[in-house]
Amino acid sequence: MAFKSLELSEIIEIQKIVTIHYFEYMSDYSFPGERHDFWEFLCVDKGEVDIIAENTPYTLRKGQIVFHKPNEFHTVKANGKIAPNLVVVSFECNSPYMKYFENLITSIGEKERNLIAQIIYEAKHCILGPLDNPNTTEMLRNPQAPIGSEQMIKIYLENLLISMIRQLNTGNLSSPAIKSIKQKNDAMVYDKITTYLEEHIREHLTIDIICRENLIGRSQLQKLFREQHQCGVIDYFSRLKIECAKQLIRENHHNFTQISDFLGYTSIHYFSRQFKKITGMTPSEYASSIKAISDRR
């Protein structure tokens, strides 16, 4: 029997990556604007920002994404109140299907967020230098990168774009895939508990308290968080506190003692130890580094 192969067609092909960034900005950050001959998207991971695309102003909030087409002038500015975390990825793509992304501002779902997270993860391992330097004009290869990291970035980015094109084409952006009843239940429980943790960020919580308040067994609770974050719920809660502390530091309205008290730490010294354990920096070092990054641009 003679076989004849099928040559696979491609609607989206990423030729080159220009920049990949994950920024944690101060609440007073402002970038006056630029235009360039390649595509760029900006996704708000936390907080909110004001942008201008050509002459039109918009406000982007957590979970929203904007695409800037080649040669489109764009600016970004924090609102002076909420310190934002931003993902910025720029790339070259000549596909006619990129028309779907012209003037696009939309919210993204869990699938899209996970793909963006995978892009950032691979970039941290295959790109030399930090991803938070706004002055980066060239992505340099890390010779010690895991095999296939650059190709994984290409695959994840193309997956993201194709997924969004499909949903834009059907008018159903970010519609969740059909899940089993168990998966739905697990997702609902997980969302309920993470919301609970966020609402009680200023308190001292134990596993027993979390289980009792959310009517869940200890083993199921730990299993949920190990599947989602590869850590236990208390470790996740500690990280949540420190993420909140980082945002408060960037908003620059409170000193470290006030932040420590606000988040329910027993002392400023314990707060500083936890902060350094999770971030690798003391609160003072973090504040200085973020200010330096913001001042570079």
Give the count of helical stretches.
9
Q: What proportion of the residues is helical, as a percent range?
A: 40-55%
What is the domain total for the residues? 2
The count of DSSP E runs of length 2 or more, i.e. the number of strands, is 9
Give the CATH class of the largest domain.
Mainly Beta
- What Rg, in angstroms, do the CA atoms define? 21 Å
Please trace the helix and strand order, writing H or E for each element: EEEEEEEEEHHHHHHHHH
End-to-end separation: 64 Å
The largest β sheet comes out as: 5 strands, antiparallel
Largest sheet: spatial strand order: 1-8-3-6-9
The name of the CATH topology of the largest domain is: Jelly Rolls
The CATH architecture of the largest domain comes to Sandwich
- The fraction of residues in strands falls at 15-25%
Low-confidence stretches: 174-181
Structural class: alpha+beta
CATH superfamily of the largest domain: Regulatory protein AraC
Coarse shape: globular
